[in-house]
C-alpha cells in the first residue's frame, strides 16, 4: 500500500485532536464524534473470538467467529457458514471473509458475551460527552 | 441546573433516545422492517444494541393463481441484536402511562 | 487483534460479492484502505433458478470499494468439489441502503 493513502488519515486525526484540545464547548462536540465511533468499535473488539451472525443489506446472513473489527466496523469472520445455504450457495467454498461495515444491517450477538450494565454505562458516558 | 436535571433535560433529538436507555423501544428500519426490544446501547449514528428483540418484516407477494397481491409478515426473535444506524428510519420511546 | 484487511488474501483466489449482487471470483492482486480491489483472471459466476451457474470470463477488474460487500478467499479444494452446473439459485439481491 502506498504511504500517501495512510498519511491523509493520520493527518486528519491529528488535526481533529488538536482542535478538540484547543477549543472549548464546540470542539468537545467534535471530539465526542471521534470517540463516538469508539463505543461500538470497542464493544465489538470484546467479542473477538466469539460466534456472531452478520446479516447484510442483501439479506445474506453469515455465521462465524469474529476475528477482527476496525473503526468503520468492517468485520472479519472465520469458520463461516451461510445460514440459508440452499438459497445462497455462493459462499460454499469460502471459510473466512472480510465484510465491509457499510453493507451490514444487523449483527446477532452471543447472549453469554453481552453485559448490559457495561453497555448502559458506556452509552451514558458517551452521551454526556465524557 | 443540577446534574440530575441536566440528565433529564431534552435539548436535542438524541436526548430522547438517551432517556429511553434500558426501556423497550420501537425501531423502524429501511426495507419494511420493524424491531421492538430493550435499548442497551446507541451512538449518534443510531447504531444500537437491542435485547429481547422481536423483528417483523413486511413483504408484498403475488398469489400465483389469482395474481392478487397480499402482504406477508414474518416475525422472529433474537436475544441480542446490533443494528447499524444507517438502516434506521425512526425510533420511538416507550409510551408512558 | 489486528485490523481487518485483505493482506492474507493477496495473490490468492478470492470470492467478491458486489453491492449490485454479482459474484466475482479472481486472483487478488491489490487492494487499499477503502477496499478498492484489483482482480486478475476473474470471472463472474452468474446464478439462475432455472439453469446451472455460468462463468463469464472478465480478465482484469478493478472494483471500486464502495461497491464491494464481501471478500473471502476461495478454498480451492472445496471449490473443485462444487458442481456449478448443478447449482441452482436465484441471483443475489443488491445491497439496499
From TrEMBL, chain A:
GO BP annotations listed: mRNA splicing, via spliceosome
Gene3D superfamilies: 2.30.30.100
Subcellular localization: Nucleus
MF term (GO), any: RNA binding
UniProt-listed CDD domains: LSm2
GO annotations of cellular component type: catalytic step 2 spliceosome; Lsm1-7-Pat1 complex; P-body; precatalytic spliceosome; U4/U6 x U5 tri-snRNP complex; U6 snRNP
Keywords, comma-separated and alphabetical: mRNA processing, mRNA splicing, Nucleus, Ribonucleoprotein, RNA-binding, Spliceosome
Membrane-spanning intervals of the chain: none
InterPro entries reported for this sequence: LSM_dom_sf, Sm, Sm_dom_euk/arc, U6_snRNA_Lsm2
Name this polypeptide is given: Sm domain-containing protein
Record organism: Ostreococcus lucimarinus (strain CCE9901)
Lineage of origin: Eukaryota, Viridiplantae, Chlorophyta, Mamiellophyceae, Mamiellales
TrEMBL record, chain B:
Matches recorded under InterPro entries: Lsm3, LSM_dom_sf, Sm, Sm-like_LSM3, Sm_dom_euk/arc
Record GO biological process: mRNA splicing, via spliceosome
GO cellular component: Lsm2-8 complex; spliceosomal complex
UniProt feature coiled coil, ranges: none
Signal peptide boundaries: none
Pfam families reported in the protein's UniProt record: LSM (PF01423)
SUPFAM superfamilies (UniProt xref): Sm-like ribonucleoproteins
Species annotation: Ostreococcus lucimarinus (strain CCE9901)
Similarity-based family: Belongs to the snRNP Sm proteins family.
Protein name stated in the entry: Sm domain-containing protein
Domain Sm: 12-97
Keyword Nucleus tagged: yes
Top-rank taxon: Eukaryota
PANTHER family in alphabetical order: U6 SNRNA-ASSOCIATED SM-LIKE PROTEIN LSM3
Function: Component of LSM protein complexes, which are involved in RNA processing. Component of the cytoplasmic LSM1-LSM7 complex which is involved in mRNA degradation by promoting decapping and leading to accurate 5'-3' mRNA decay. The cytoplasmic LSM1-LSM7 complex regulates developmental gene expression by the decapping of specific development-related transcripts. Component of the nuclear LSM2-LSM8 complex which is involved splicing nuclear mRNAs.
Main location: nucleus
Annotated localization: Nucleus
Alphabetical UniProt keywords: mRNA processing, mRNA splicing, Nucleus, Ribonucleoprotein, RNA-binding, Spliceosome
A Gene Ontology molecular function term of the record: RNA binding
TrEMBL record, chain C:
Gene3D superfamilies per UniProt: 2.30.30.100
Domain of life: Eukaryota
This protein's record includes keyword Nucleus: yes
Main location: nucleus
Gene Ontology BP, a term: mRNA splicing, via spliceosome
GO MF term list: mRNA binding
Keyword annotations: mRNA processing, mRNA splicing, Nucleus, Ribonucleoprotein, RNA-binding, Spliceosome
SUPFAM superfamilies hit by this protein: Sm-like ribonucleoproteins (SSF50182)
Gene Ontology cellular component annotations, sorted alphabetically: precatalytic spliceosome; U4/U6 x U5 tri-snRNP complex; U6 snRNP
Domain Sm: 1-77
Annotated CDD domains: LSm8
Family annotation (SMART domains): Sm
Coiled coil: none
Subcellular localization(s) per the UniProt record: Nucleus
Quaternary context: LSm subunits form a heteromer with a doughnut shape.
UniProt family annotation: Belongs to the snRNP Sm proteins family.
Its job: Plays role in pre-mRNA splicing as component of the U4/U6-U5 tri-snRNP complex that is involved in spliceosome assembly, and as component of the precatalytic spliceosome (spliceosome B complex). The heptameric LSM2-8 complex binds specifically to the 3'-terminal U-tract of U6 snRNA.
Name by which UniProt lists this protein: U6 snRNA-associated Sm-like protein LSm8
Lineage: Eukaryota, Viridiplantae, Chlorophyta, Mamiellophyceae, Mamiellales
Amino acid at each position: 500500500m502506498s504511504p500517501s493513502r495512510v498519511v491523509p488519515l493520520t493527518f486528519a486525526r491529528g488535526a481533529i485532536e488538536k482542535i478538540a484540545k484547543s477549543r472549548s464547548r464546540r470542539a468537545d462536540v467534535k471530539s465526542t464524534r471521534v470517540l463516538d465511533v469508539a463505543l461500538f468499535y470497542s464493544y465489538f473488539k470484546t467479542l473477538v473470538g466469539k460466534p456472531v451472525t452478520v446479516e447484510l443489506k442483501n439479506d445474506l446472513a453469515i455465521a462465524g467467529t469474529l476475528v477482527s473489527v476496525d473503526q468503520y466496523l468492517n468485520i472479519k469472520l472465520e469458520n463461516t457458514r451461510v445460514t440459508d445455504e440452499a438459497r445462497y450457495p455462493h459462499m460454499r467454498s469460502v471459510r473466512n471473509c472480510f465484510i465491509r461495515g457499510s453493507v451490514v444491517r444487523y449483527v446477532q450477538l452471543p447472549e453469554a458475551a453481552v453485559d448490559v450494565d457495561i453497555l448502559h454505562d458506556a452509552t451514558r458516558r458517551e452521551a454526556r460527552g465524557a | 441546573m443540577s446534574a440530575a436535571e441536566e440528565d433529564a433535560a431534552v435539548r436535542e433529538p438524541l436526548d430522547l433516545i438517551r432517556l429511553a436507555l434500558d426501556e423497550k423501544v420501537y425501531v423502524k428500519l429501511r426495507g419494511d422492517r420493524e424491531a421492538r426490544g430493550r435499548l442497551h446501547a446507541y451512538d449518534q449514528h443510531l447504531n444500537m444494541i437491542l435485547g429481547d428483540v422481536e423483528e417483523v418484516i413486511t413483504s408484498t407477494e403475488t398469489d400465483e393463481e389469482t395474481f392478487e397481491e397480499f402482504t406477508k409478515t414474518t416475525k422472529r426473535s433474537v436475544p441480542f441484536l446490533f443494528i447499524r444506524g444507517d438502516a434506521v428510519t425512526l425510533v420511538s420511546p416507550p409510551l408512558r402511562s | 487483534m489486528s485490523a481487518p484487511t485483505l493482506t492474507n488474501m493477496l495473490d490468492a483466489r478470492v470470492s467478491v460479492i458486489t453491492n449490485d449482487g454479482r459474484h466475482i471470483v479472481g486472483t487478488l492482486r491489490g487492494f487499499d484502505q477503502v477496499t478498492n480491489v484489483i482482480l486478475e483472471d476473474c470471472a463472474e459466476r452468474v446464478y439462475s433458478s432455472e439453469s446451472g451457474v455460468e462463468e463469464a470470463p472478465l480478465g482484469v477488474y478493478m472494483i471500486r470499494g464502495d461497491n464491494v460487500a464481501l471478500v473471502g478467499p476461495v478454498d480451492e479444494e472445496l471449490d473443485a468439489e462444487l458442481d456449478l452446473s448443478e447449482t441452482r439459485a436465484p441471483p443475489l439481491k443488491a445491497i439496499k441502503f
